[in-house]
């Protein structure tokens, strides 16, 4: 395998100046449930559907020991952990806790970019309290979250978003990890590429094949080589490996769409496989929608054939939807005219857009409930 | 072909058939009406959109039997504008049809009658009759709940099925996923063993229009894929929706323990009044129940607020619940009596609405979270 080395470290990577914290609540939904029901403390808990086709939305650390993960089918989770206790999600409670946490953030900075109910980036370079180090800010925030909500959070402190997020994951749960500018490159070099944001199982497997296991391996690859191998993502990987991430913490960032796509190990041909892939993506989208309290009116699918030809199809509905079954139903209807597929399908994704936001706020605040036929 | 017909008769029949014809067609002949003059002295007019077909036979003076097809909307417009009381002479030859009435003369383009598509009815083993009035009730009390969302094609119609629950019944149901409407009547003779069917929305609409002109009974024959309505001079044939209607019984609540009895008219008027300022998108109306005081209110960020108290009969613990005003009005508009029962459970649970437990119609409405 040709892999031209082109080390170009150093000058660009010492990006200092900013102080970014990534806060991530530990096993959020499950922890809230354990907090509110003492009978669940120390027990393996899964928040999510118990129905036949349900998935785990969150798993407590006790459950994770058995291999139970979020997004896993409930049936599989139960097989892995027969004592698993299923709890119905209470999103209004999670939203309330999220609001509490954001009030704490607001005492330190206005530059808060929420990623979901339980995760946010904070830029504390110039914090309200004039605290000199981001480490101290993170320490105070974690202590206050514990005191005011009874829950634990992990924090990653660094000089950009990419490293901060990697760092918060580093000492989970209830951990604090600080990566100073002079440690950034070495920290990334040690990380397995599978932990990088944007590296899914298929990309990880391809990197594995190319001998790229860690951030250090990735850094040895040239920009051109990564571009050839991974297309548009190549550039991102090139910069990530060099700890370069200039993205600002954007408090005003409004999510326009919620999407999920998967690249497959083997190209898909059969209707059943394609439908299953759409269902998986629809469930991921529905989970994110539920987590953020959003619903959308437009469903689109993206389909890439083995020859890399890429199609998108979209449909806008009269009323917003957010549940997986409805999203998949529309996605299947969009897929139907493209079937049977002439070529193998290497990538399939589902996106929900026209989300309730801005003057659509009412869509979110006054939500029409649906009859439960299924 | 050569025939003469009264303008009024022609206009009325064309009025029926032309509404089956879609305004935009990719297949040109689908824009046309098939006109056939029979030796028995009738003019048969026929139109189709490939899923729905109508044939109407009216008396005419036939000089020369034959058939042709011309644009349905054009011929309808001509008939509309011809002088009242005139006799219209239709004659077809060499790719044209001539329409003559009084001093007006039209030469219309035709398409060959042999190209005109017909729905093959096949075998229609189930046959029964329903009084036109009963069929009207079944339609009027359910059709507003039909879904318009094409993705859920199996909800784009009224579901008819027979059942045995003590006595044999025929049920009609429609839902759009937010509300459900169902009417139950005694099973008519001949409907036993009838397959479950979903009658498409367009067929329901055309049928309903035709029913206004039928006095006696409607002759219904059907299979699992087609249905045919004999309506006096008109015969309406439709394909049925090829899909499975969801098991709607599971969404009908049976243990709602909070009962509100209220005058449907004042309830409806109150909802309509406060909804004036509701956001166009959601139409959300809040209903606060506190003893016998029912307060309807709307809060709109753009417009302001509105509230109205409506007297009701309510003894259960007080609470608040939100509904889409449009949906409430649709249902209340179908209640004939002077009280309506609203069976509630909580602000997120399906609500059952009916005149009383003897009433043939029943409605289930999901609330809005407000």
User: What is the end-to-end distance of chain A?
Assistant: 51 Å
Class inferred from helices and paired strands of chain A: alpha+beta
Number of helices of chain A: 14
Q: Let me know the number of strands of chain A.
A: 13
Report the principal-axis shape of chain B.
elongated
Radius of gyration of chain B: 25 Å
Q: What percentage of amino acids of chain A are in beta strands?
A: 15-25%
Unreliable runs of chain B: none
What name does CATH use for the topology of the largest domain in chain A?
Answer: Dna Ligase, domain 1
Q: From the alpha-carbon coordinates, what is the Rg of chain A to the nearest angstrom?
A: 22 Å
Average per-residue pLDDT of chain A, rounded, comes to: 86
Which parts of chain A are unreliable, with pLDDT below 50 for 5 consecutive residues or more? 1-15, 357-364
Tally of separate domains of chain B: 3
Number of helices of chain B: 6
The number of E-state strands of chain B comes to 26
Overall SS class of chain B = alpha+beta
Q: What share of residues of chain B is helical? A: 10-25%
Name of the CATH architecture of the largest domain in chain A:
2-Layer Sandwich
Q: What is the fold named in CATH at topology level of the largest domain in chain B?
A: DNA Polymerase III, Chain A, domain 2
Q: Superfamily at the CATH H level of the largest domain in chain A? A: DNA polymerase, Y-family, little finger domain
- What is the name of the CATH superfamily of the largest domain in chain B? DNA Polymerase III, subunit A, domain 2
């Amino acid at each position: 395998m040709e892999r031209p080395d082109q080390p170009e470290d150093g000058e660009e990577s010492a990006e200092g100046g900013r102080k970014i914290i990534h806060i991530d609540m530990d096993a959020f939904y499950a922890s809230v449930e354990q907090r509110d029901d003492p009978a669940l403390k120390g027990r393996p808990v899964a928040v999510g559907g118990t129905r036949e086709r349900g998935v785990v939305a969150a798993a407590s650390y006790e459950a994770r020991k058995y291999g139970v993960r979020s997004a896993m089918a409930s049936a599989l989770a139960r097989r892995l952990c027969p004592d698993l206790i299923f709890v119905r999600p209470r999103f209004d409670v999670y939203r309330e806790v999220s609001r509490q946490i954001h009030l704490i953030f607001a005492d330190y900075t206005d530059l808060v970019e929420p990623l979901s109910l339980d995760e946010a980036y904070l830029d504390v370079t110039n914090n309200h309290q004039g605290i000199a180090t981001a480490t101290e800010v993170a320490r105070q925030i974690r202590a206050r979250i514990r005191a005011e909500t009874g829950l634990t959070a992990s924090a990653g402190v660094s000089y950009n978003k990419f490293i901060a997020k990697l760092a918060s994951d580093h000492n989970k749960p209830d951990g604090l990890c600080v990566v100073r500018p002079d440690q950034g490159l070495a920290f990334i070099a040690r990380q397995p590429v599978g932990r990088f944001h944007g590296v899914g199982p298929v990309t990880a497997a391809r990197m594995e094949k190319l001998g790229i296991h860690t951030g250090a391996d990735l850094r040895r690859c040239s920009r051109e080589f990564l571009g050839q191998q991974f297309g548009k993502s190549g550039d991102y990987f090139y910069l990530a490996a060099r700890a370069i991430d200039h993205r600002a913490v954007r408090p005003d960032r409004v999510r326009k769409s919620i999407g999920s796509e998967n690249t497959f190990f083997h190209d898909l041909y059969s209707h059943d496989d394609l439908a299953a892939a759409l269902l998986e993506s629809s469930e991921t989208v529905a989970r994110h929608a539920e987590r953020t309290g959003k619903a959308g009116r437009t469903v689109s699918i993206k389909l890439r054939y083995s020859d890399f030809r890429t199609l998108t199809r979209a449909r806008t509905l009269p009323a917003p939807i957010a549940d997986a079954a409805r999203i998949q139903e529309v996605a299947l209807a969009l897929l139907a005219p493209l079937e049977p597929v002439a070529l193998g399908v290497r990538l399939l994704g589902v996106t929900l857009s026209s989300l309730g936001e801005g003057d659509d706020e009412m869509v979110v605040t006054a939500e029409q409930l649906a009859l439960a036929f299924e | 072909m050569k025939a003469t017909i009264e303008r009024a008769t022609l206009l009325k029949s064309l009025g029926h058939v032309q509404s089956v014809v879609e305004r935009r067609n990719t297949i040109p002949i689908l824009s046309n009406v098939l006109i056939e003059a029979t030796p028995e002295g009738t003019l048969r007019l026929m139109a189709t959109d490939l899923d729905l077909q109508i044939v109407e036979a009216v008396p005419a003076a036939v000089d020369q039997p034959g058939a042709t097809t011309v644009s349905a909307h054009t011929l309808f417009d001509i008939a509309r504008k011809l002088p009242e009381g005139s006799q219209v002479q239709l004659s077809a030859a060499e790719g044209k049809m001539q329409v003559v009435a009084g001093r007006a003369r039209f030469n219309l383009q035709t398409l060959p009658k042999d190209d005109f598509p017909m729905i093959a009815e096949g075998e229609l083993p189930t046959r029964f009759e329903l009084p036109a009035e009963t069929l009207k009730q079944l339609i009027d009390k359910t059709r507003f709940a039909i879904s318009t969302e094409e993705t859920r094609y199996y909800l784009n119609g009224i579901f008819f099925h027979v059942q045995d629950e003590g006595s044999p019944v025929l049920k009609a149901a429609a839902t759009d996923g937010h509300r459900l409407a169902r009417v139950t009547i005694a099973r008519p003779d001949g409907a036993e063993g009838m397959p479950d069917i979903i009658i498409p929305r367009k067929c329901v609409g055309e049928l309903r229009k035709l029913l206004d002109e039928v006095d006696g009974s409607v002759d219904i024959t059907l299979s699992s894929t087609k249905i045919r309505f004999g309506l006096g001079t008109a015969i309406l044939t439709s394909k049925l929706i090829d899909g499975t209607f969801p098991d709607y019984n599971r969404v009908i609540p049976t243990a709602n323990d909070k009962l509100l009895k209220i005058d449907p008219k004042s309830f409806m008027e109150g909802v309509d009044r406060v909804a004036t300022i509701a956001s166009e998108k959601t139409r959300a109306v809040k209903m606060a129940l506190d003893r016998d005081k029912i307060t309807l209110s709307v809060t709109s960020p753009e417009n302001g607020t509105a509230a109205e108290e409506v007297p009701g009969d309510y003894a259960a613990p007080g609470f608040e619940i939100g509904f889409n005003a449009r949906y409430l009005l649709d249902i209340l508009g179908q209640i004939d009596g002077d009280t309506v029962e609203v069976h509630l459970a909580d602000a997120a649970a399906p609500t059952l609405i009916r005149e009383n437990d003897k009433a043939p119609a029943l409605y289930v409405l999901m609330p809005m979270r407000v």
